[in-house]
Amino acid sequence: MQDIRLEKILLIEDNDEDARFFEKLVKSCFCVRSPRQELQVIRAGTPREALEIIRTEVVDFIFLDLGLSEEAPVEIYLRIREVCPLTPIILLTDHYNIEKASEMIAKGAEDYILRSNMDKGVLERVIRYGLLRAETLRMKQEILSMVIHDMKTPISVTSEAIAFILDGMAGDINKEQRNFLTMARRNMRRLTEMVDNLRESAATELGKISLRKEKINITEMINEMCDGFFLPFKAKGLELDRALPGKDVYAQVDGEKLSHVLMNLIGNSLKYTERGSVEVSLIENVASIEFRVKDTGPGIPKDSLERVFVKFERTKEMIKAGKKGIGLGLAIAKGIVEAHNGKIWVTEGMRNGAEVVFTLPKG
Ligand SMILES: Nc1ncnc2c1ncn2[C@@H]1O[C@H](COP(=O)(O)OP(=O)(O)OP(=O)(O)O)[C@@H](O)[C@H]1O
Ligand SMILES: [Mg+2]
User: Fold this and answer.
1) Of 133, 180, 305, 342, whose CB has the highest number of CB atoms within 10 Å?
2) The domain 214-361 belongs to what CATH superfamily?
């Protein structure tokens, strides 16, 4: 394995003996290295320890024991994947949880090793394969990110042209033409949302998320956002209410990213609510501001309150109801809110409808 550069491996394993065996075996794969290239195996005994490590340092490779007793293995895997979207993750499993390993491979884990089969040859093969898969994925993400970026301009030019004609700037249009153009505008809005989410998601995966914070008038931003939603709400016969403080509220945030969060939350309430209303509220606290988007739709089931923030996760109720979506909006909202050191959650115990709340520090 002299051709492979690997500096830090994270081993998530609660059994001391298994950990020692693993460390010895993995080091034997790289044994002819010079002292300067020493391979470091960092051990985490619990998922919490593992999360602390990957939040503070970069690791090149992760081995995850599926027999950790604390939590369901899939949940642990998803939380680690969220922090390390492009790091190869290999699962260490026994015969009894091979099914779980397959489920995680379907969710993006690179491979698994059966403990009873683990030897130097197997370990070398999965490391090579894991790195190759992760690199291919990274390149695909780079290309995707460039393509998505280039889609932005033609979409906005087309949307502006549609708005121009609808506003009568290119002469009178008849009722039928207006109906077609209104439909085109609705679809362009959907396309814009999808491209924005894909762009944000690709940037996050490639580690390119960066905030450009400035002092923003939040009250004004919410008003503008709600004005922009006026037509689609009207078309669906829904009310869009605002509950804002009587004065302007300011905060130090990335305005573009914050409007992206609001767009996703209001967009969800619009998409998933068939009757009634949606309310956007803003509350000013001493050191933070709080946003609430509440609707009278079908709501989010109790067992999905956390899961909806995971990429590509959608509730089966909404899939069954034929609602279209990729499952990116809330994951992106969470990424943006947490990058601002804020928090986002779905209110528990709502009897009717859904409510998503997030807070951001003012400064
Ligand atoms: N207001 C809501 N009411 C009911 N279910 C909701 C609501 N908001 C989100 N959900 C559920 O959470 C899931 C995840 O939402 P998310 O915004 O991440 O993805 P999406 O709306 O499916 O797709 P998109 O990537 O286009 O936003 C949805 O598929 C839906 O099942
Ligand atoms: Mg959505």
Assistant:
1) 342
2) Histidine kinase-like ATPase, C-terminal domain (3.30.565.10)
